[in-house]
Specification:
The structure holds two protein chains of two kinds. Chain A is mostly helical. Chain A is 31% helix and 7% strand. Classes of the chains: A mainly alpha, B alpha+beta.
Chain lengths: 221, 500
């Protein structure tokens, strides 16, 4: 159906690279579109490139929406109800912190005594040429250590979310929202703990915080 | 040596991190490698020192417009069309400001005859080309479509060659004597500078002006308070036919002269006029489902091209929250969101047509009516409205009433009446290469309550862009440009002749 669109000139190859939609609970008849995905030539870490991606992406969005409205049963009376207020960035910058997560941590399902959360989300690089990693078996998971959230250079700084300390490949796994939420949860816990006990955050040993005060306790202890 | 945001990293290290043995196509990044679309293609114009650090100069252009709202977008497009190399800085990811990010819909009407300047007329025509007819057949309100409007603005900027920088905020200015030499911006990558010959302050909050040392004021001189903020939103899943049946037929509410698809509901308890929906909202206060604040003002407009969706012009946030204080504004956000949900839930439970409705969209910025205003060369006052002032350097006309929520709501001018806005209200003595547009021009709180509506702001921006390019082409400082000396056919508005 989408390839016909390209044939007829209603869509470009870029437009159809990835099309996905999810219904939204509490918003009957609304779907959240997980597209367009901007061509990788646009950069999430360069302001001029990013700005061009905005206009380019908006154009793709309208092409895709108009096409669906014209051709996909169910979409006959559909319309764009809302644009995102920020561009969906998967990866931009990452710090080099005390512990540097790598693909091996995923592949070998590493656990850590100072783990702040666990995940098994695969290494999800949106580039067909780089999609080369094996997936973990059911039940396996790796953990993210507290040391990936702190640095050697600044004693009172925690870094959470997609820019925590890890390689491009490792981040392609740990970047998803529940994992980021859990990292943030742990960071907030540690920040308050460190202040209450007079310990700089980059010297805290997460595993020494009483288990009942921690948001996550690794079985590794 | 050119500076950019690149963090030096060897290709070998990068490959190692990506787990690849062989070099291949890299997935973007700030390295500036082959296949990336970025600033390293010669666009960076050196570096400068700011706050003790070296920051890149991203652009060195003719005109830099701060703010991609109704007036800023107009200014940038017109400056570029008139030959100026132009950069437009916008903190969101969409152009259109309050119309698009703020859900302020539709555009109000000036009530003045022939007030549409060419840019405003063009935007309406482009809406038509996209299947959106902005004229409801009765009023001069502009019923647009926010998603289409922002696409139109992208197209107009691209056609004119405007360089737009999204997700970028102005944080400071560099001033030498009476000249703004650069603005400092926060980009996604970090701090950078933009040099320009002329700057246009379309921030709405007069940020560029205040930072550069132009005198300013804020709030009503009698109370010290700004106009109230609103937190607008859209609701979907509305059965508009059922709603119309209930409001227009069953309740016999007749003040909305336009019909679906251009339909409006409203009630406003503080007004002299009584509205049929007031009873419904007042009942909510009695039952405890709504607070008085939440019931005070409720208004909704159907949106063209979005069947079943209405743009809600409420809640209006209590005036104790300030549009010019960051802490207060932030509390207003959470407070307003709570009001929004209460109002939406109440309508769903009680207003016919809303049975299956839901909040489909929140605004991405609060609706600020007034925050700061500069004291420029000419200071517009309330008398200019009542006396219908005219100016040889007028850039547009309007007759929207004095609409100061909670303070002063004036009578309309007689039919055909209007006042004009002079170029002198867009410039200041203190900074020669600065033009100010939109709601923060040089006007009193009361007069601003009239001039602040979107078509007027668009026309002001349009004129600013023309004047900026003109001044540069003639070697005349922006604040010394005589608007009336620009050949009439180049001006967007000529006093005595109306809009061209």
């Amino acid at each position: 159906m989408f390839h016909s669109g390209v044939d007829w000139g209603e869509l470009t190859e870029d437009d159809i690279l990835f099309i996905q939609a999810f219904s939204i609970i509490g918003k009957p008849s609304v779907m959240s579109m997980n597209c367009p995905e901007s061509p990788v030539k646009f950069s999430a870490s360069d302001p001029v490139s990013y700005s061009k991606a905005v206009a380019y992406g908006r154009r793709m969005m309208h092409h895709i929406a108009d096409y669906l409205v014209r051709h996909l049963p169910g979409f006959e009376n559909a319309f764009i109800s809302r644009e995102a207020s920020m561009v969906g960035v998967r990866e931009s910058w990452r710090i080099r912190g005390k512990y540097y997560m790598e693909a091996e941590d995923y592949l070998k399902a590493h656990h850590f005594p100072d783990a702040v959360c666990r995940t098994a989300y695969p290494i999800d690089i949106h580039d067909v040429k780089l999609d080369l990693f094996e997936k973990l078996k059911k039940g396996q998971y790796y953990e993210i250590p507290y040391r990936a959230l702190v640095t050697n250079e600044i004693s009172n700084l925690l870094v959470v979310g997609r820019c925590a300390s890890g390689s491009f490949a490792a981040q392609a796994s740990f970047r998803i929202q529940p994992t980021c939420m859990s990292m943030g949860e742990a960071a907030g816990t540690a920040a308050a703990w460190g202040l209450a006990h007079g310990i700089p955050v980059n010297e805290i040993k997460w595993e020494e915080i009483p288990a009942e005060n921690r948001s996550y306790v690794s079985e590794e202890e | 040596m050119e500076k950019s945001f690149s963090i030096p990293i060897s290709r070998r290290d990068f490959m190692k991190m990506a787990g690849m043995a062989a070099a291949g196509v890299l997935a973007g990044g700030s390295i500036g490698g082959a296949g990336t679309v970025n600033a390293a293609g010669g666009r960076t114009s050196g570096a400068m020192t700011y706050a003790g650090k070296e920051i890149p100069v991203l652009f060195s252009v003719d005109v830099c417009v701060a703010g991609g709202g109704p007036s800023g977008t107009a200014a940038a497009i017109m400056a570029a069309r008139n030959g100026a190399r132009t950069v437009l800085v916008e903190r969101g990811v969409a152009l259109g400001g309050l119309a698009v990010l703020g859900c302020v819909y539709p555009f109000m009407q000036t009530h003045a005859p022939d007030s549409d300047t060419p840019y405003v007329a063009e935007v309406k025509e482009r809406l038509r080309q996209h299947g959106i007819e902005p004229f409801d057949g009765v009023t001069q309100q502009t019923w647009h479509n926010p998603e289409i409007l922002t696409l139109i603005y992208d197209e107009m900027c691209a056609e004119a060659g405007v360089e737009v920088l999204f997700q970028t905020v102005v944080v400071d200015t560099v001033v030498e004597g009476r000249t703004l030499t650069a603005c400092i911006v926060q980009t996604i990558a970090g701090l950078a500078a933009i040099r320009a010959k002329t700057f246009i302050d379309s921030t709405g909050d007069a940020f560029l002006s205040r930072s550069a040392g132009v005198p300013y004021e804020r709030g009503y001189e009698k109370t010290g308070k700004n106009q109230p903020l609103s937190f607008r939103f859209e609701m979907g899943g509305i059965d508009i036919d059922r709603l119309y049946q209930h409001v227009a037929v069953e309740l016999q509410e007749d003040w909305c002269k336009s019909k679906p698809p251009y339909f409006e509901i409203a009630e406003a308890m503080h007004r002299k006029q009584r509205y049929k929906l007031e009873e419904l909202m007042a009942k909510g206060v009695e039952t405890g489902e709504l607070t008085q604040e939440e019931a005070e003002y409720m208004q909704g407009y159907t949106i063209l091209g979005k069947n079943g969706v209405m743009s809600m012009n409420c809640p209006e946030i209590p005036v104790k929250f300030s549009a010019s204080d960051p802490v207060s504004y932030s509390k207003a956000v959470a407070y307003g969101r709570r009001m929004m949900h209460h109002i939406a839930d109440y309508l769903i439970r009680h207003l016919p047509g809303f049975e299956n409705a839901f909040i489909s969209r929140e605004a991405a910025m609060l609706g600020a009516r007034e925050s700061w205003r500069i004291r420029g060369k000419h200071y517009l006052v309330e008398d200019d409205y009542h006396n219908q002032s005219r100016f040889t350097d007028a850039v547009c006309r309007t007759a929207w009433f004095i609409d100061a929520h909670g303070e002063k709501v004036s009578e309309k001018l007689p039919k055909g009446g209007f006042y004009e806005i002079p170029y002198g209200s867009l410039v200041a003595e203190e900074i020669e290469n600065l033009i100010v547009t939109g709601r923060c021009i040089s006007a009193s709180f009361i007069l601003q309550a009239s001039m602040r509506i979107q078509p007027t702001c668009m026309s002001i921006g349009e004129a600013a862009g023309i004047a900026a390019a003109w001044g540069l082409s003639k070697g005349i400082a922006a604040n010394a440009v005589k608007w009336e000396a620009i050949p009439a056919k180049k001006r967007s508005y000529v006093s005595g002749e109306g809009a061209k």
